[in-house]
């Protein structure tokens, strides 16, 4: 690969208004799909070359799906049918509203309209130690790394001398009782019941503990109290240790200490506790509120009528959503589609339409026949019907016909056999602390 | 993860003869499947926790299959049905025939019978520079790394200033005209024709060059001259530049120089030129011949009746195969099964049976409707019928029902759409020279 200085963005000049979209997630993709190349030149930047379907990421981490099944190459989604669309796999380094320019690792580009759709990143609330030692679950490499970690814990628990250290390999602490934490805990419990006892015949899996730690007083705080209660019962049925009203004080890679003093020895702390907006340098602090860009109902960032923010990075305060929209796919999808309409209005000098979120409901899965759903009009589903709804919705929204096929194949296979199939240990990257301390992984990988 | 000193192999004591198998490839797996836990205690060591189906590895590298589809977790293959079978994911560091002990990273284990089934590793013929800069294709992380490299070359070629450097990104040099090199070249040619022009609408793919370099005077030297000739014609039809009788002198990451002086500028040199046995320390040099263990027809290593070598690491000189058996799956599979029989003979004090290789034929694929097959009795197939045979044989031998399903789904999808679907850039590891020189990859990955 080349040095950065040899590269250039190489975007053709245009007389059409140029829309630059930063991020190929739910917001960015749905915006770009709805902008016509006849009216706009559309440029999309992303550090990755794929669009990930993050609601299924926890299944990659728990060996249920291969990473390629939940992601779609952005260039495949935007093929030659999309006239004057330009994707560049490059990191954006800054925004310069005064010159209407965006900077990337390989050069600058002027824009007419800039759309920030960068989503969120893990938020460790300033705790560098937790950042260093915990396992995040935001990106595909995170999921592959966590999958390898889980499986290596069992391999090593099978070879350990000291019973106390063995227990620390079999303790899994998930911090954060939102959908990611709940679904991950449920999937781990299914592995413990169906897969691991046959993989490790000599091991006693009644000793494997799964802790789900939540700072608030219920799991799935964004969902209804009814669904929270059902979820808590389901989690207890499958043997999850739930710790509510509990905050993490510190984690040194071996022991997690909670505020209040309680400690658990664990080699694996999964951090699903919080996210903050993945902001771009260059906008003043007044434009943000706790890491999200303040936008009006047209998704314009306050003070910057040509710069928009959509999805998780946008904070649109409305009467119904005084704390902004929930951080899930639907608001991003709907804002992306809606902004396409408003950009057309702008260039046609028509009045803009305010965004209104249509809540289609929300779902969470704990395991086979165990799921919860909040529907509009305060209706709730649970059990088999919610489980079927979860499966259907996730396959329906998954991008790409091949991905739908592969995911259905895997789920059908798992339904019949109870097997999580993709149990390969492939470390996608070596973390800094691996290089320093994880002698075992390093020595194993050390090729002659 | 833990420090090595905290671990131990933790294999139960036994009164049965203990067979220690090093390597979970075709040989090791077929041996273990045919040894009864009633008669033997079977211990298998592998650095990976999966059995890979390497004949399909090139499809992972060219974005046709996900890695999980061509590999099966060893613990899944050997579940609780296999009595007294013990898998340990650990690196073997040495053999001590005098004490009948094998050493691993986490401890020693006495054996009654030791079976070395470690296969091969890439052979760079002592050229450290080529080892550092070229892309091997032996393991799943290699394939993921090569896939990312290929896709990043196109991303960067799209953003490059200098036309000469752009050309070096679009030159792909495959060294080695054996099955891996030929199949990889064919798959790259299909991508160039069907996938890339729609992914990169502005780019001129007539400038993309695929070179296949072979030191001997024909491609596929292990196959019949007829199949070599057909393969050469197929490769030329799909636009591969074949260079026969050509040896690589050096490669510095930018320019490959051939013996004779010719040079090609390329960012991607794929090394499929040679392998050598992945030997274990501790046996005397007389027991080996150019990296393979010399074995008798019972697969016993010369001078060590309790140590066996099977598959690619074994060199069994016979009248029909004076240079050993071909380095493909079938001899390993057959030797594994056969050795199980002979180990039973040994403990029952019965005479051993000499191994005889049954050549079922060999196959290679270049692309849709383009394949070659050598059958027993000097029969040859080509074209559609050989292509169908290739597809059938590879699905048939692939381990695991889920893998068969997923591979068939992918192939069917590709057959209809001409798409290589798994085009995600996920770097599985950072190579030493990435850290030093690959500024672009590093800066992109540098999270805030």
TrEMBL record, chains A, B:
Tree of life domain: Bacteria
Classification via Pfam families: NDH2_C, Pyr_redox_2
Residue stretches making up the FAD/NAD(P)-binding domain: 18-336
SUPFAM superfamilies named in the record: FAD/NAD(P)-binding domain (SSF51905)
Positions of transmembrane segments: 384-401
The keyword Electron transport is assigned to this record: no
Catalysed reaction equations from the record: a quinone + NADH + H(+) = a quinol + NAD(+)
EC number: 1.6.5.9
Keywords, in A-Z order: FAD, Flavoprotein, Membrane, NAD, Oxidoreductase, Transit peptide, Transmembrane, Transmembrane helix
External alternative NADH-ubiquinone oxidoreductase-like C-terminal domain segment(s): 360-415
GO function terms (MF aspect): NADH dehydrogenase (quinone) (non-electrogenic) activity
Family: Belongs to the NADH dehydrogenase family.
Descriptive protein name: NADH:ubiquinone reductase (non-electrogenic)
Organism: Rufibacter immobilis
């Amino acid at each position: 690969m080349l040095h950065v200085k040899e590269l250039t963005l190489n975007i053709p000049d245009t007389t059409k208004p140029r829309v630059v979209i930063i991020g190929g997630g739910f917001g960015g993709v749905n915006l770009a799909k709805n902008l016509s190349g006849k009216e706009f030149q559309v440029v999309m930047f992303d550090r990755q070359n794929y669009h990930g379907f993050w609601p299924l990421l926890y299944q990659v981490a728990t060996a249920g799906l291969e990473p390629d099944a939940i992601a779609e190459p952005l260039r495949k989604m935007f093929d030659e049918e999309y006239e004057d669309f330009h994707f560049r796999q490059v990191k954006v380094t800054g925004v310069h509203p005064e010159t209407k320019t965006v900077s990337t690792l390989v050069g600058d580009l002027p824009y007419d309209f800039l759309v920030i759709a960068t989503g969120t990143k893990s938020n460790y609330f300033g705790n560098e130690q937790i950042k260093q030692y915990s396992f995040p679950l935001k990106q595909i490499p995170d999921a592959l790394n966590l999958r390898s970690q889980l499986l290596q814990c069992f391999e090593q628990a099978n070879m350990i001398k000291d019973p106390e250290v063995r227990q620390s390999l079999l303790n899994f602490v998930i911090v954060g009782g939102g959908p990611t934490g709940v679904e991950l805990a449920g999937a781990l419990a299914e592995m413990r019941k169906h897969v691991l006892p046959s993989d490790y015949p000599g091991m006693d899996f009644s000793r494997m503990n799964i802790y789900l730690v939540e700072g608030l007083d219920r799991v799935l705080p964004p969902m209804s109290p009814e669904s929270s209660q059902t979820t808590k019962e389901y989690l207890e049925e499958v043997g999850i240790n739930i710790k509510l009203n509990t905050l993490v004080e510190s984690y040194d890679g071996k022991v997690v200490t909670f505020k209040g003093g309680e400690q658990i020895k664990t080699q694996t702390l999964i951090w699903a506790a919080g996210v903050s907006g993945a902001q771009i340098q260059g906008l003043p602090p007044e434009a943000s509120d706790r890491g999200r860009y303040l936008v009006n109902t047209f998704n314009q960032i306050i003070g910057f009528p040509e710069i928009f923010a959509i999805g998780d990075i946008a904070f649109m305060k409305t009467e119904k959503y005084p704390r902004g929209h929930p951080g899930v796919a639907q608001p991003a999808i709907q804002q992306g589609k809606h902004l396409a309409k408003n950009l057309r209005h702008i260039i046609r000098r028509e009045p803009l339409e305010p965004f209104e979120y249509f809540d289609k409901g929300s779902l969470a899965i704990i395991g086979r026949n165990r799921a919860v759903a909040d529907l509009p009009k305060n209706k709730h589903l649970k059990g088999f019907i919610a489980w079927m709804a979860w499966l259907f919705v996730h396959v329906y929204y998954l991008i790409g016909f091949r991905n739908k096929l592969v995911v259905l194949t895997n789920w059908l296979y798992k339904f019949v056999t109870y097997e999580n199939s993709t149990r390969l240990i492939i470390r996608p990257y070596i973390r800094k602390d691996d290089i320093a301390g994880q002698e075992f992984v390093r020595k194993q990988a050390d090729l002659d």
